[in-house]
Write a structure and sequence with these properties.
The complex is a heterodimer of chains A (about 170) and B (about 280). With about 170 residues, chain A is of the alpha+beta class. Helices cover about 30% and strands about 15% of the residues of chain A. Chain A contains 5 helices and 6 strands. In chain A, strands 3-2-6-4-5 form a 5-stranded mixed β-sheet, with helices on one face. With about 280 residues, chain B is α+β, with helices and mostly antiparallel strands. Chain B has 3 domains: about 45 residues, Uridine Diphospho-n-acetylenolpyruvylglucosamine Reductase, domain 2, CATH 3.30.43; about 120 residues, Uridine Diphospho-n-acetylenolpyruvylglucosamine Reductase, domain 3 (2-Layer Sandwich); about 90 residues, Enolase-like, domain 1 (2-Layer Sandwich). In chain B, about 35% of the residues lie in helices and about 25% in strands. Chain B is built from 11 helices and 14 strands. In chain B, the strands form 4 sheets. Chain B has a 5-stranded antiparallel β-sheet. Classes of the chains: A alpha+beta (about 170), B alpha+beta (about 280). Strand 1 of chain A pairs antiparallel with strand 1 of chain B.
């Protein structure tokens, strides 16, 4: 039985955006803080910190999940993707990110990283979503700037482009 | 909004989890998917001495058909049950209710049994367990017992689980032939806690309605073969017995009206399904 003491920091290792990473965390440390403060990967944002707003959504073992509702120590051994892993190469945006830019699907940008991580996963599983299904899926995120219309437009546009045979990201 | 300090135990087998519960009792909290415990920890509504992670126990994995019931282990996530190929055929009420549980981004980690353990009065899974006469399988170092859902949910976020016990699984009776099932919910936004949720189960001889979000726990009433105005009157009596309260989401009167209206609609939906 592995027991990690409250007052000490413990090594946590996982795969982040295809790369093995490790750092130390107290048992109580949230995955959000571990990513941002220990690993210095600050693309994942911290909003409500109790699972409601969706700003901290990352992909854990292939499914979108709230990083603020996950302990860093629970993520030991997992495969995690964050918004930093979306762009195919430096200076080039993914098809989804490019669609967000084209449709002005962000204003302040605080919610964007979480929404991108959710949609990137969703469009892989549902390449041809209905607008209704997409809106229901987006219900797991709060955006206080855009009114969601440009986000939906960007996601539908990205889905269409991703279905084209030549697209690779 | 950060949890207070706690030790973290990653249980390697069931005996280790039982041992930790026997040692720490109420000072231990079990974590599986964490979708209800983590907010409670972060808001410091609970401050356990140890958090015991049971998500790595092979014994708690899996959805099995056992006789006429479906056994869902404590490690089964809500998304996993929603994706189970036999869900519509075996558990049509859960098929209708699960999309209302949180959001896709929380169902991906939240577990079925975790929701039962949390026992939020407006949660969909406890409501379905009650409506379907499910049983909750509890185990501890001392043994194992099964408790009917009607006896398990004892009040607001309170259950019959003893402090040395863990929920190992829930057993939900499979779909019966000649039975109709329906689920409806009203909330301000999809994914919010239900203001009122209704589950209806209708056979030729009986109309059953279970209601969540009104009383301090899900409530159930069997109406026999009542129909028409007599059923409306009985629903009105039921709505008044639920001891609805005003809160910042809705008034008691509004909740009673939802029980009458949405309750009846849900019953009719189950009836059509049955026919």
């Amino acid at each position: 039985m592995a027991r990690l003491s409250a007052a000490e920091r413990h090594m946590v290792r996982f795969t982040l955006n295809g790369r093995a990473v490790e750092a130390q965390a107290e048992p109580r440390m949230l995955l959000t803080d571990f990513l941002r403060h220990e690993l210095g990967v600050t693309g994942t944002h911290v909003g409500c910190e109790h699972g409601v707003c969706g700003a901290c959504t990352v992909e854990i073992d292939g499914v979108p999940a709230r990083a603020c509702l996950t302990l860093a120590v629970q993520a030991d051994g997992a495969t995690i993707r964050t918004v930093e892993g979306l762009a195919p190469e430096p200076g080039r945006l993914s098809i989804l990110q490019e669609a967000f830019r084209r449709h002005h699907a962000l204003q302040c940008g605080f919610c964007t990283a979480g929404i991108l991580m959710s949609l990137d996963n969703y469009l892989k599983r549902q390449p041809d979503p209905s607008e209704d299904a997409l809106r229901e899926f987006l219900g797991g995120h709060i955006c206080r700037c855009t009114g969601y219309v440009p986000i939906v437009a960007a996601a539908m546009d990205a889905a269409r482009r991703l279905r084209e045979p030549s697209s690779d990201v | 909004m950060k949890p207070a300090r706690f030790d973290y135990i990653r249980a390697g087998d069931l005996a280790e989890a039982h041992h930790a519960l026997a040692e720490f009792g109420n000072d231990a909290r079990l974590i599986a998917g964490g979708q209800t415990l983590m907010p409670m920890l972060s808001m410091r509504l609970v401050r356990p001495q140890v958090v015991v992670d049971i998500m790595h126990l092979p014994a708690l994995r899996g959805i099995e058909t056992t006789g006429n019931a479906i056994r869902i282990g404590a490690g089964v996530r809500q998304a996993e049950l929603l994706a189970w190929p036999k869900l519509a055929e075996q558990l049509p009420l859960l098929k209708a209710a699960l999309p209302w549980v949180g959001h896709a981004q929380t169902r991906s980690r939240g577990t079925v049994c975790g929701s039962a353990a949390h026992a939020d009065p407006s949660a969909e899974i406890p409501l379905c367990l009650l409506a379907l006469d499910a049983t909750i399988e509890l185990s501890s170092r001392r043994g194992r017992r099964r408790v009917a859902a009607a006896e398990f949910f004892t009040g607001m976020m309170t259950t019959a689980r003893a402090e040395n016990e863990l929920i190992e699984a829930v057993h939900i009776p499979a779909r019966q032939t000649g039975t109709g099932y329906a689920f409806n919910e009203f909330g301000r936004r999809h994914g919010d806690f239900a203001i009122v949720a209704c589950a209806a189960i209708v056979t030729a001889a009986n109309v059953r309605l279970a209601v969540g979000g009104v009383a301090d726990r899900p409530a159930l009433r069997d109406f026999g073969a009542l129909d028409g105005k007599a059923l409306d009157d009985a629903l009105d009596v039921f709505a008044w017995t639920l001891d609805a309260r005003d809160d910042l989401h809705a008034t008691a009167r509004y909740r009673r009206e939802l029980v009458r209206q949405m309750g009846r609609e849900t019953i009719e939906e189950a009836r059509r399904w049955h026919a």
